[in-house]
């Protein structure tokens, strides 16, 4: 009888390795091509798997994107954590957070676009781990302001959440053109400019803020008109 050739051993990677390969491929493809219709087939090809394998580990394309974004954000936080803890001085700490954010946007514009324009608008975003990570990351700036208030560096009536919104709002507005392929930006001077303006606005006031008398009168008239309008509607 002819001898049978030995059956070839098929190498099966453990699930953890498969998931890691898919995540690596997905991060690259999402960053390059965005959230396009045929992106899953390209991810499968680059990861060396069939499309069905992806759906064994991820519910759908959105689930895969969500997990890629979460891993990216966690990586960004972990990389900066040790350096952030070593920073001394309120200006330096504010600058570190602002510069680190700008540098992350410049380095990974594709993932930033997906997070801002694909994942953030979703109704369930506030219940996601990505939202929690983002809240913790931006919360670093709130903590800096609170610490500065406690140490007497910043004025006692400062609003940490408003300071956070101003800083990250400025970052988003000033990088919008870059994320839409319309222009570039330099993280170093932009980080310094945003930090200088934010820091100056948080310092104790040395003199009352001047208010224009005409402006006060116009505001009073506007309030009276609003009350009259409300009474008329009632």
UniProtKB/TrEMBL annotation:
Residues 16-76 form the HTH tetR-type domain. GO terms for molecular function: DNA-binding transcription factor activity; transcription cis-regulatory region binding. Keywords: DNA-binding, Transcription, Transcription regulation. It holds the Pfam family TetR_N. Residues 39-58 bind DNA. It comes from the Bacteria. InterPro entries: Homeodomain-like_sf (IPR009057), HTH-type_TetR-like_transc_reg (IPR050109), HTH_TetR (IPR001647), KstR2_TetR_C (IPR041490), Tet_transcr_reg_TetR-rel_C_sf (IPR036271). This is TetR/AcrR family transcriptional regulator.
